[in-house]
Amino acid sequence: MQSTSYSLENIRKDFPVLARKVRDEKDLVYLDNAATTQKPIHVIDAISDYYKNHNSNIHRAVHALAEESTEAFEAVRDKIAKFLNIKDRQEIIFVRGTTEAINLVSYSWGRENVKKGDIVVTTEYEHHSNIVPWQLLAQEVGAEIKYIDIDENGELILEQLDDHLATGKVKLVAVSHVSNVLGTITDVNRIITKCKDAGAKILIDGAQAVPHMKVDIDSLDCDFYAFSGHKMLGPTGVGILWAKKEHLEKMQPFHGGGDMIREVHKYETTWNDLPYKFEAGTPNIADVIGFAAAIDYLSNIGMDNVRAHEIELTAYALEKMKNVKGLTIYGPKDPQKASGVISFNFNDVHPHDVATIIDKNGVAIRSGHHCAQVLMEKLNVAATNRASFYIYTTKEEVDVLINSLEDVARVFKL
Ligand code: 7TS
User: Which residues line ligand 1 (CB under 6 A)?
Assistant: First the structure.
């Protein structure tokens, strides 16, 4: 176990995959953390231990293994409550990820509360997961979608939110806490204040925020908050929807089935208490338990240290990238305003070509539209390259990325 001080060397030793060689014995330089992070041995062992020693379904049987599994599973809810300063554990719903969390809100809350002529506001830098569910809802009920645009620094033009709210028709504002492409940190406190004054509800997509900074749900005081475990060292297939109890109590279930019921009769059913009303069927027990090990790991490092490391790396990368001819960087140039994500294009080379060439040096970045085609349209590009950092990323790895661009220049004779 690493100490609470930040030891990059010790941290890296906890991630077996980081020792891998790829593409002709090159050291792996993993810079695709916004897509998913690598897993420390603690998480891998926790999942393995669960299957080896405890595996059972939960909430039902009275035997020893069922009791152990249920206790371990429910303890994770308490751990999440503590990690994010959530006062009421009944407000924490286990889902598969951010995508499912947002769809749950769109179906169960949206279909009751958003009517013909109402407006749902989102932003130009959303992931498709925070656009498409609202489009589906809008089409079904006859509502409208409006956008908050971004400025040339990749920041939201919040005056546009005022204009939307002034119509009196806005039922919900759905915004990401951090952009997955630009890394921009949204001023969610300002947005929440504006929404409250106007009586609009607010959903925050925290998929790129919770892994990278301290998030305090109680003091944020929004209505819905969604995030995924796999972007913060946890396994895939586990995510969280947090919602205010007053909403969850009134909402219809999203899925029907086992565990979410109190009584089922031939023609009618009553619902279980929160949070189980929204957790139909056997959940992803082993991965929820693995997620707890990820939270322990991050808590042990301290989220302030995680953030400080990313600011340092981003500042280092941006400074070095300034000197690379033909590089266009999208989003904030101030590392205090962004998380560890840098999107760029290199001359006119297609991002897939850039990514393919630097992959030969073992560098893993993402190229494409990053599930943010509305943003690509705004930037007037089909795609970008994206390098994204995490707790184990080193300055040497940033150097490998930047030096690899010379190979791209050579291939394309730039
Ligand atoms: N919202 C944001 C801001 C995201 O970055 C992502 C995933 C999602 C929602 C969806 O999360 P999921 O866990 O339900 O899939 N973002 C990315 C990405 O940037 N590259 O791959 C996945």
Answer: 34-35, 97-99, 127, 129-130, 176, 180, 205, 207-208, 228, 370-371
What pLDDT, on the 0 to 100 scale, is given for residue 5?
A: 63
Instruction: Give how far Cα 5 sits from Cα of 2, 300, 301, 397, Å.
Output: 8, 9, 7, 21
Region label for 25, one of left (φ > 0), alpha (ψ between -120 and 50) or beta (otherwise)? left
- pLDDT for 296 equals 98
Consecutive H or E run containing 104? helix 98-104
Å from CA of 99 to ligand 1 middle: 8
Nearest-10 Cα torsion for 132, 97, 195, 199: 90
Residue 2 lies in a domain: no
Considering the entire predicted model, what is its pTM?
Answer: 0.98
User: Which parts of the chain sit beneath pLDDT 50?
Assistant: 1-4
- The pLDDT score that the predictor gives to residue 254 is 98
CA angle 408, 413, 414 (to 5 degrees): 75
How far does residue 55's CA lie from ligand 1's centre (Å)?
29
Instruction: Tell me the residue range of the domain where 164 lies.
Output: 46-299
pLDDT in tens, 7-16: 999 999 999 9
pLDDT in tens, 301-357: 999 999 999 999 999 999 999 999 999 999 999 999 999 999 999 999 999 999 999
CA 95 to centroid of ligand 1, rounded, Å: 14
Q: Is residue 68 located within the same domain as residue 208?
A: yes
Does residue 101 contact residue 242 with C-beta atoms inside 8 Å? no
How many angstroms separate the alpha carbon of residue 59 from the centre of ligand 1? Answer: 30
Q: How far apart are CA 109 and CA 246, in angstroms?
A: 11
Note whether 287 and 309 are same-domain residues.
no
- Report the domain count for the chain: 2
Residue with tokens 């109190």: 262
Residue among 371, 376, 409, 411 flagged as catalytic: 371
Closest CA to 130 of 214, 196, 228: 228
Q: Which of 180, 213, 339, 367 to mutate to test the pocket of ligand 1 (most atoms within 8 A of CB)?
A: 180
